[in-house]
Design brief:
Blueprint lengths: L7 H4 L22 E7 L9 E2 L13 E4 L4 E2 L3 E2 L3 E7 L8 E2 L4 E2 L10 E10 L2 E2 L16 E2 L24
Parallel strand pairs: 1-9
Antiparallel strand pairs: 1-3, 2-5, 4-8, 6-7, 6-9, 10-11
Amino acid sequence: AAVTEISPANYQEMLTPNGSRQYIYLYAAMQPYTYTVTYDLNAENDETASLGIDNKTGDPYVSGQMYEIDKTYQFAVASRNGFRFDYWTVNADGSGNRYGAHTNFRNLKVAEGNPDFKVYAHWTPITYAIDYNLSGGRNSNLNPLRFTVQTKEADLRLYNATKTNYVFKGW
C-alpha cells in the first residue's frame, strides 16, 4: 500500500495561493488482519474421517480457511466411522486448550509471523454391546460382551453356545 506523508515540502501544496489554510480530509484505508484455522483430523489415515457442515451457512467446513480478526466464527464438527468426536485441541496428543464443535471463536491467538491456528481432533471409540440370542441355550463365558472398532480380531473370537440335547451349528 502506498504511504502519503505530510511533510513541510508537500504541506505548502496544501495551502491556497494566498497562504490561507484549507481543511484536508484524510481517510484511512484499513484491512483486517486475517488468519487461517487448519483442522487436523488426527485419524491415522482413516478415510472415513471428515469435516462436517457449518450449521449457520450450510456449507462444508474447509481446513485452511481464512478468517478475519474481530469476526465471530464456529469451530467445525467432524465425523469418523466408529468414533465419537470429542473436541478440537491445540496438541495432537489431546492436551492443551479444548474447543467443542460449533463453539464460537474470534481473534484466535496465532504465533508471530505465522497466521495459522492448527487444531487436532480428539476421538473416543464407540463401544458396541453384543447381544446374544441363545434360543434357550447357554453362552460361553469366554464370548465378548462388547467391542470397538479398535478391538483386535483375535479378541472377537466367538465360542460355541450350549443347549441340552442340541448340537450348536454356529453363529
